[in-house]
Amino acid sequence: MYRSSIVAGVILILVCVLFIRSRRPPEPSKGETTGIKVQRYASEAFPAWAREHRGRECPDTVDELNKYIGASDSMDAWGRPIKLQCGPTMPAGLQGLNLVSAGEDGKFGTSDDLAPF
Predict the structure, then answer these.
(1) Whole-angstrom Cα distance, residue 15 to residue 22?
(2) Of 3, 18, 53, 67, which residue has the fewest beta carbons closer than 10 angstroms?
(3) What is the mean pLDDT of residues 40-68?
(4) Which of 63, 53, 103, 97 is nearest to 80 (CA)?
(5) Mapping DSSP to helix (H, G, I), strand (E, B) and coil, where does residue 71 land?
(6) Does residue 45 belong to any structural domain of this protein?
(7) Is residue 113 part of a domain?
(8) How many domains is the chain partitioned into structurally?
(9) Model confidence over 23-38: pLDDT tens digits?
């Protein structure tokens, strides 16, 4: 009797743990995580950087923007560098700043690239 009560108690605990774990929101995908990061660079970090660096059009590297969003590195979720396009490095006809992750395939210029705009 005592042993069956222990087994029932353990099973009840396991069921509770599984129920609680199943109610957690899913972890964001690498694409979602990177998309959020490049968006924050463009909408939060760059404007803050520009206010502190009047007279400069662009940061030299993405790393200069890290402190404004509390980032420890300028890598995407796949561990590859996020590309900064600003001023003369912007594609023809565009102005301002753009940040691009090569996405899951690691190649720039493909459909899985992630950019804030």
Answers:
(1) 11
(2) 3
(3) 95
(4) 103
(5) coil
(6) yes
(7) no
(8) 1
(9) 777 888 999 999 999 9
Instruction: Flag whether 110 is in a domain.
Output: no
Residue 91 has pLDDT above 90, yes or no: no
Which token pair is 48?
């803050």
Looking at 1-117, which runs of residues are DSSP E strands?
Answer: 83-86, 97-100
CA–CA separation, 103 and 111 (whole Å): 9
Two tokens, residue 6: 């222990």
Question: Is pLDDT of 8 > 60?
Answer: no
- Nearest to residue 98, comparing CAs of 112, 113, 111, 110? 113
Per the listing, tokens 């899985």 go with 112
Nearest 10 degrees: Cα torsion 84, 98, 114, 91: -90
Is the pTM higher than 0.85?
no
CA 46 to chain centre: 16
Looking at residue 117, its pLDDT comes to: 72
Q: What's the CA gap between 97 and 93, in Å, rounded?
A: 12
Of 35, 51, 38, whose CA–CA distance to 97 is shortest?
Answer: 38
Q: Which domain holds residue 85?
A: 30-100
